[in-house]
Amino acid sequence: MRFLGVIFDKKLTFLPHILSLRKKCEKLLNILKVLSTTTWGADRICLLRVYQAIILSRLDYGCVVYGSARSTPLRKLDFVHHSALRICCGAFRTSPVQSLYVICHQLPLYLRRKMLSAHYYFRTQSVANHPLQHLSLPIGLRRLYLARSFNILPFCERIKTVISHAGLSDVTIKQKDSFTFPPWDVPCFSYINPFSSFDKSSTAPVIFQQLFASHRHQFSSFDSIFTDGSKSEGYVGCGIIFPPDTYSYRLHASCSVLTAELVAIFCALQKIAASQQRLFCIYTDSMSALEALCHADKRMHPVAEDILCYMRELQTQGFNILFCWVPSHVGIVGNEQADSAAKAASNV
C-alpha cells in the first residue's frame, strides 16, 4: 500500500519502498553524469546543489518512517549516495567512501536519517498536545524489546537513544502552538546602521571609531548597552555590558551563535526593565540577529519572538529602545568588552 509516497508492505520491512526509491534515484544519476562532463560541465558546488535538489531530497522524504527498516535494506540506498558523491567531486571508483564525505561535506545516510529524525522529534515536542509527546513504551514491552534485540524499537524509543548519545537529553524544548502576533498586529522592527556606506575590509578601524563617536553624540540622551555572543568548541556564552556592570552567561553547548546573540539581547532587555532610565540603545555586531528580528513570521527564531514580545511590553511602560549594528573588532570599546565577556562565559 502506498500512502503519501511511502510504500508500506505487510511486515513493515519497507523493502519495496527502498527498492523503488533506489530505482528512481539511479535514473536521476544520469542527470549528474551529463552535467559533470569535463569539457563544459558544472563544478563540484553546482553538482552538489543539483544532487541535493533532485536525489537527496527524495532520500530524505519519509526517512523518519522507513528508517525503521533493517540495516541491510537501508544499505542499498548507500550505493546511490556514494555514486552521486563520486560524480560530484570527480573521485575514482577506488576512492575511500570516508574521503567522499569529507570532500563533499556530506553525512552518511544513516547519520542523516538520525539527524532528520531528531529534528522531527524536536518539532513534535514543541507542539502542545502532539500525539508523540506522551508516547512511550510500557515497562513490560520495553523489557520484551530488550530481551529480543532483533526486534526494531518504535520511533519514540529509537529517537530517545539518538538524543541521549548526542548529549541532548537535558535540553528543554520550548512549547509553541502558533504565531504569537496576529496578521494585523505584526510588530515593525528596525535598526540603525551608521556604517552602511563603509566596507570593513577597506576602511581603517579609526574611521569606524570616529563614526561611532559621532553616532553617540547624536544619541547622547540614550544609555548604551553592548551585547555579544560567542561559541567555542563545546561551549557557548553571551555577554552584556550594562555600564558600569558586566554580565556573562553560559548557554547549552548545542546552541548556535545566533541563539547566543539573541539571548544576549533578551537578557539586556531584562536589565532594562529593572532600570529607572527610559531611553536605551542596544549595540550588537550580529547582523543576522537584527535581521531575524526584522522578519516576524511563524518560522522566526523563538528567542527573537520572545524579544519582540518583551519589547512591546516595555514600550507600553514608556521605554524607548533603539538597536544599532556596530562592526566587530575595530576598537569600539563597548563591543570589545562585550566580546570578552561572552568569551569568558563560554570558557567557564
From TrEMBL:
<dbReference type="Pfam" id="PF00075">
    <property type="entry name" value="RNase_H"/>
</dbReference>
<protein>
    <recommendedName>
        <fullName>ribonuclease H</fullName>
        <ecNumber>3.1.26.4</ecNumber>
    </recommendedName>
</protein>
<dbReference type="InterPro" id="IPR002156">
    <property type="entry name" value="RNaseH_domain"/>
</dbReference>
<dbReference type="GO" id="GO:0043137">
    <property type="term" value="P:DNA replication, removal of RNA primer"/>
</dbReference>
<dbReference type="GO" id="GO:0004523">
    <property type="term" value="F:RNA-DNA hybrid ribonuclease activity"/>
</dbReference>
<keyword id="KW-0479">Metal-binding</keyword>
<keyword id="KW-0378">Hydrolase</keyword>
<dbReference type="InterPro" id="IPR012337">
    <property type="entry name" value="RNaseH-like_sf"/>
</dbReference>
<comment type="similarity">
    <text>Belongs to the RNase H family.</text>
</comment>
<dbReference type="InterPro" id="IPR050092">
    <property type="entry name" value="RNase_H"/>
</dbReference>
<keyword id="KW-0255">Endonuclease</keyword>
<dbReference type="GO" id="GO:0046872">
    <property type="term" value="F:metal ion binding"/>
</dbReference>
<dbReference type="GO" id="GO:0003676">
    <property type="term" value="F:nucleic acid binding"/>
</dbReference>
<keyword id="KW-0540">Nuclease</keyword>
<dbReference type="InterPro" id="IPR036397">
    <property type="entry name" value="RNaseH_sf"/>
</dbReference>
<feature type="domain" description="RNase H type-1">
    <location>
        <begin position="219"/>
        <end position="347"/>
    </location>
</feature>
